[in-house]
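Collaboration report, partner site 2.

Our partner group contributed sequences for two proteins of shared interest, and the home lab folded both. The records are reproduced in the order in which they were received, starting with the first partner submission.
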Amino acid sequence: MYFFIQDDWKIALLSAAVESMSEAVLMTDPAGKILLLNRQFEELWRLTPGWMETITARDRIQQLAHLLCDPDQFLNRLDEVYAHPDLEALDWLTLRDGRIIERHTRGLHLEERIIGRIWVFRNITSREWAQRELKVMKRVLEALNRIVEPQRQLQAGVQALAQELEARAAWLWGVEGSDFARLLAHYGARELRIDLTPRAPGDPCECLQRLINHGFPATAHPIVCPRLAHLNTPDQEPARHISVPIYSRDRPLAILNLVLPSIQPFNVAELRMFAAIANQFSVAIERARLFESVREEQRAAEVLRQAAATLSASLDFEQVLDHVLDQIVALMPCDSASVMLVEGTHARVVRVYGYEALSDEAERAIHTVTFEIARTPTLRRLLETRQPWIIGETHNNPAWVRIEYALPIRSWLGVPVIVRQQVVAFICVDSFVPYAYRPEHARRLATLASSVSLALHNAQLYEQTNAALERERRLSELTRTISSALDIEVILDTVVRLSVELVGADAAVLGLLSADHAALVRTHTFNMPESLMQHVQGVQPVWSAVETRQSVIRHHVMLKAWRVTHHIPSVIGTPIIAGGKALGVLAVYHLHRQRFFGEHDRSMLEIVGQQTGVAIANAHLFAETQRLATTDHLTGLFNRHHFFALATRELERARRYHHPLALLVIDVDYFKTINDTFGHSAGDVVLRSVAEQMQRELRDADILARFGGEEFIALLPETNRAGALRVAERLRAAVAGVPLLREPPVQVTISIGCAVLDSVSEHDRMDTLIHRADRALYIAKSRGRNQVASDP
């Protein structure tokens, strides 16, 4: 350095200054010869200490170039820089080990002349990887959120991920049950001849087995799958394979497989990115499944309602059988189906669907097939247990009996049809895909079988009781009415009223049983005297119908209460049953005339009881479906979607009547710490407890919902700013007042942001109000949490 600085003290000072800098620094003369560097430079480039003394000046730059992915570009850039002494340059270098270095250089001036060049290097690998991770995550999130239809969401997400990572292939498996996986989405997999058939038990797919057995570590882990072995052959381009596990609440959910270019090992940043992507796909898959589940339940409830109405409307035996197959096809996926009637010890096929794919001769022959029930394992089990049965895989299953004219059936579901405690028929549905049927399919088919059993019973009664045509018409009217109703109150009121008309009675009472069948929890009456209701709410004379689950007729019943004696000429009691379970009892009275019920009347009311049971079961199913569609499953509060539906109506009402409207956004403080410290189960307990505490403090008119994660939202109609702040403070104090976790005791607090519309205008929107409350919540948190803040 003496050729441009002739002072030892200045040289020492410059060396010390360079050594003390936090960045890696290199100084060269105007020709590019390295004169000075610091320890940070050696560490950044991973050079051995004293490296300058072990290599000639001419080879130093060459050796640095060999550490880069593109040494020629590096040397050419050096020549360009040194050819222009005044040039200031900033660029990036990629090392062979994958690190990314930012390089900044400028001329070194002394007394208005350039005496050399200074270089500053920074390791920006983490920053670049973070930016890449953000870019990939943004692209995937945009793809997942851009499309409403769930299945297309997953396909778009997989495609976006593969394109952003320049992957040769990507495919997503969804785990169903404990040992089965089905393809959800894929990109480029078929072009690489990758096997995409469903994974069944015993499949050698290592990634599936490790996912089910929780054999993955916490982050994504590269594994070798036998199904990808052909990608490692010499005729294939080098690639990296990775299987990313996707869990939801520690439950195996899915596997994301990727084939990426190059053969470099996966670094920590990549594995972290894959873990983050797995979380996003976990949310998307859960959302898709929930969406599909709710939609399927709603569709199934509607199909069952229509099926009950359709089957009940037909009193012709052959028409009922025809309708059964139509309802099965509408209710669930199936490739074929059959109805068999029980005739003594045998079951005869009377209706089939899907066999038209066979020859005409085979289709005719299948209608003549008769099974001996005792020697047919599937039918024998249905007869003995009277419960649905699913065979997930028929191959190598000893219970499966093959016939001559057989379709390629892989999974099977059967239910018995029970009429008056007797199995009279079997309904069977088949699929060419293994593991096609789940418990909910069995439940739906059993509900349909209840309707079928009732329809068959009605048809038999119609054939046997032609003389009572008018009463049959009334029975059909009643069953249609209650079958088409989904409100249980409407069903019960209709039943008691029409039951009186059906059998020409004077009064009726219908009571629903408690869970232990010891008492009635709800009663509906028609023309019942108040004094008679004191006797076990009007059903004491026929309580044995509840105990025996059989209808009962009693004549000349004497009841005493409060010095009043009731003489009841005749009473019929029939249990309300659905799916073999007693739900209640229907009692019908002759009170004022010496008239007596007969066996025909009992038969009629038994049908009413069975129809009512099915209608109640359908109403409960519909109500549960509605609840699932509007309620958060963890806290029991409204979900986000339903909140917006209610909030929009409240906003419009406040605008119309010029009422104030307040909104609170509530966040559980340090919730992540609770999850990390005590586990997700404790976090769930905290969320439920916080929801319960807040519900106690709010009015019935207030709308409280879970907004997402640990965040809640409350809409307070007709509430001004002062009132909203009082409510918010009350909520905060209620949650902070008691420990929400008892073992160990943990004090939980909440922060609340408040926003108020004193007068709602045409331009006010709910999302704007939420944004203001969010802004206030941020203020509350920035002030230390456990506070209430209001947006000005």
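Second partner submission, folded after the first:
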Amino acid sequence: MNKKYLFKRRNAIICSIVFISLFFNMKTFAMQDGSQHSYDYPHVLLINSYHKGFGWTDTQTDAIIEAFRTYNENIIVSVEYLDWKRYPNEENLDLQYGVISHKYKYVNTDLIITTDDIAMEFAIQHRDGIFAGKPIVYTGVLEESAIRRTQDVENIIGVYEVLDSAGTVDLMLELQPEIHNIYVVCDATESGKDVSHAIVEAIESSDTNLSYRILDDLSYEQIMTLLEGAQEGNAVIMGTYTMDSQGKKKSNETFSKELAEITTLPMYTVYEYLLDYGVIGGSLLSGTMQGTYGAGLAIGLIEGTPMESLETVNIKPVYYGFDYIYLEKNNIDLEDIPAGSVVINRPISYYEMHREVILIYSGVTLILLVFVIILSYNVKMRKKAQKDLEEEHNALVSTYEALTASEEELKAQNEELIEQQEKINYLAYNDFLTKLPNRLHMEKYFAKLVKNTNRLHSKVMMAFIDIDNFNYINTAHGHQIGDRLLQEISDLFKSYVQDKGTIGRIGGDEFICLVGIEERFDCKDYIDGLMDKINRSLEISGKQLFVTASIGYAIYPDDGLTYDELLIRADMAMYKMKSMGKAKASRFDIEMNQEMTDKINLTNALKYALLKDEFHLVYQPQYNSKSQKIVGYEALIRWNSHTLGQVSPIRFIPIAESTGDIVEIGKKVIEEAARFAKRINNSDGDIIKVAVNISVVQLLHSDFVDIVKTIIETEKVNPKWFEFEVTESVLIKSFDLVNKQLKVISEMGIDIALDDFGTGYSSLTYLRKLPISTLKIDKTFIDDILNEGENHFFTRAIIDIAHRLNFRVVAEGVEEQFQLDYLRAGNCNTIQGYLFSKPLIEGDAVELLQNYK
């Protein structure tokens, strides 16, 4: 049984499997008839220049279909044949156009693949008429022909048919150096002339004085007669020959085989599909590789790769291939052919012929050997187990004797167990880090206090304590510093509470304090003392940390009858203090229930607003009163809720910060502001900056800088068009980390403005260390600008300091002419406020800018 037989048998089996699979599964992968009007998956139309059964065409087609099947078996590939080899006339092409136009008129085709010249030219000519300008991928076209045919054609790419004629000629001379004349068998078709031209060029470029003759002017009979009587020293190179000079047609493979049977001349070729049809071999152009490369380009387009990002494949898809029968016929030794060559029809060795039987017998022998090893091991293990049992029996006897004599040791072990149990009980009721009572301990202590208060007609105060900005400390300095801080704070709590009550840690940075109180007990005074104890600067591992806490407290039985009720209401009071600026304390009151409900509703509405994009920006201009020009805009966010109506930023920004949604909201604000900045800076005039307010949560987010860079690159905006505004309250949260982030932003080219300067933790240290370029004077100073007192002098001082530090000064909230006059006199010329303009929607802001230009 030779390799050719096995190959044909394998093909028959594969065809049968494919047919059955198509019949039962009803999947259409390849060779569709085009009758479907739409597909759920990409549809590719493969147009072949020649007929089915032509080797060159079949190898390309099979490779293309296999590549798509490997990539995604659901891709639909329809195959058409123009049959140009057998019917090389315009009538045939017109007929094919009519058929294809009818079949695919209503089919959504995503991409066209063509093989060889005619199909490519056909697709180019009729693409706009049938396929609405779909992309074309071609294969099997010589480079010169492809360049000529695709000149001024868009949306097309492919694989050049790069023949290795020189490789075949050099190989032939190396194996048979006595050859001095070559017969080139190519027909007179356009593709045949291209091939013969390439072969002749290789012959003329060789180092030897080879003669040649092209046989495109002879009939089949004349060629066979000529080559049957040819002398030694001659050879044949088979190209493409499907029609002789008399118009007779015959497949290339058939003619090659017939020629090999009557001639004694060695026959070589440049095409893979002629191997096994009478030729010795050569450096063979692989239709399989052509098809695979072409399918690769097509898959790239299907995946969304732009056409301009792909490159035409211009490599030699060739390999050395030989037929063993004709190597032997021409006395060529296998050792003489290049290493790594493919050889077909090689005699099958005894091992190859009986490989399956040999492998089965080897496997059975190996299994028997394994069984023998297992049995031997089992016997050995049984003997060992018997010995181990005997040793264990002896050990048990010894152990029994030892246990009988070790009562004192058991007592010691029992005492150790009791000690361990005490440790476990301690850990069950106390916090491991701070050694304070934990939640479970505090619940039990509360129950004990309630029992006593009911007996003595007294009350219980529960205070819920939360360390302000503890997350920022963890983020900026690490959890080790955070843990040390919690231990220091716990010691402060214990020193204050002592025997007046109990304080415990119930999780994270949250503590509760329980105190039994009498009617005359002053809860507020007690809580204020607790606040004074905690609100201070602490040095932890060489770092100075300013710590504050927010406290809410509730009274049993006035505010709740159970531990959970009291905890919830004290928690409400604490969060109320958080929302009022932190570092405050308050007792629960009934209105907080409604506030908490409102907060929950607002939080849910905020989530919905993000999904439905209910946010938009307005822009308040910044006006230079000296040059009488608009020099910038501040982007201000607005929310029109479908359920709550217009919601003030003062209400929803703190909630967005607490839930983390401010990161996504801030990203959308920067994106929209970038588009606005691009719109108003589209000329060569002065830069109009767009100021965007940045939250501390955004600044401390690990991806904030990357988010800004991505927006700048995506929207193609100049960073100098931006100004990021931060408030002084942001700096106290985590100055070192915030300053680091701001420096990176500044190095990108974005200006930094310090907003509301003078209202919070004003410090000249910030002005010196921060990479700021602008100071914004808060509206509260502008409102009292003419009043006698510190605001009057403080405003003038801010302006003077800013000018000395080369900062730009912007006055916010300018609403009256006398305010503008005062600011002008102080050399503060950039103003922002209703005196000049209220915040405007984008279109009105652009129109206002055009009017001032």
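Feedback sent to the partner group on the second submission included the following. The longest strand covers residues 629-641. The first helix runs from residue 3 to 25.
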